[in-house]
Amino acid sequence: MERLQKVIARAGIASRRKAEQLILQGKVKVNGKIVTELGVKVGPRDKVEVDGIPVEKEEPVYYLFYKPRGVISSVKDDKGRKVVTDFFKDIDKRIYPVGRLDYDTSGILLLTNDGDFANLLMHPRYEIEKVYIAKVKKIPTREQLKQLEKGIMLEDGMTAPAKVKLLSHDKQKQTAIIEIRIHEGRNRQVRRMFEAIGCNVMKLKRERYAFLDLKGLNPGEYRELTPHEVKQLRALALSGGGK
């Protein structure tokens, strides 16, 4: 027997927190009866419905995807642009991205149908360290790099301390390649941090997500995470070890 909200989350319909809201709103039925209590447990033979649609208990799946530039981190786009799930046509489960990468940013993106897992990795308290490589216009000074490390004041507040390394620079073209490690996940955060010190990002790639990298993958390709990798990610998030 499992808690109702966990069954809904595992089916890929919503995160556990969102599933709790659906229950409280009276949108969930168990064996034809509306359930509004969060403590209810269900078994394999119980029929669960959300908004009148039967919940199919899918086996959880976990993928590491090399997102190309020019792709939306979503399952659909009202403007008809390419989305990440367009690369998973052979997958018959309802998967969705864990967090997001900007349209113009390439690199590691995880996809799953496990709402519990996705919610854990995206929770602000458990944010995993992510490593980005940025090509920027203008060579930042040592003082500007220190500003990034200490934290930058953006319109939505101060960023957490980051780890920053100048990898190379071209004096003639006035460009630089910089590695930056952050554990937050705000919208367009890395681009906004560089803009705040006067360096516009020309190209951005997320190279690592915790201990995961893109080894063996080309843009648009994916692989399944191993059970051990999934277990490691859970443990890393719960321990705060990704920071």
Mean pLDDT figure: 91
Question: How far is it from the N-terminal to the C-terminal residue, by CA?
Answer: 34 Å
| Number of helical regions | 6
CATH class of the largest domain: Alpha Beta
Number of domains: 3
Offer a few descriptive terms.
243 residues; alpha+beta; Structural Genomics Hypothetical 15.5 Kd Protein In mrcA-pckA Intergenic Region, Chain A; Alpha-Beta Plaits; 4-stranded antiparallel beta sheet; 6 helices
Description:
With 243 residues, this protein is of the alpha+beta class. The protein folds into three domains: 2-54, Structural Genomics Hypothetical 15.5 Kd Protein In mrcA-pckA Intergenic Region, Chain A (Roll); 62-125 and 214-239, Alpha-Beta Plaits (2-Layer Sandwich); 129-209, 2-Layer Sandwich (Alpha-Beta Plaits), CATH 3.30.70.1560. It contains six helices and 17 strands. The chain has helices at 4-10, 16-24, 115-122, 142-150, 189-196, 227-239, and strands spanning 2-3, 28-30, 33-34, 41-42, 48-50, 53-54, 62-67, 96-97, 105-112, 130-137, 153-154, 157-158, 163-170, 175-182, 200-209, 212-213, 222-224. Strand 2 and strand 3 (33-34) form a beta hairpin. Helix 1 crosses helix 2. The radius of gyration is 20 Å and the shape is elongated. The protein starts with a strand and ends with a helix. The mean pLDDT is 91.
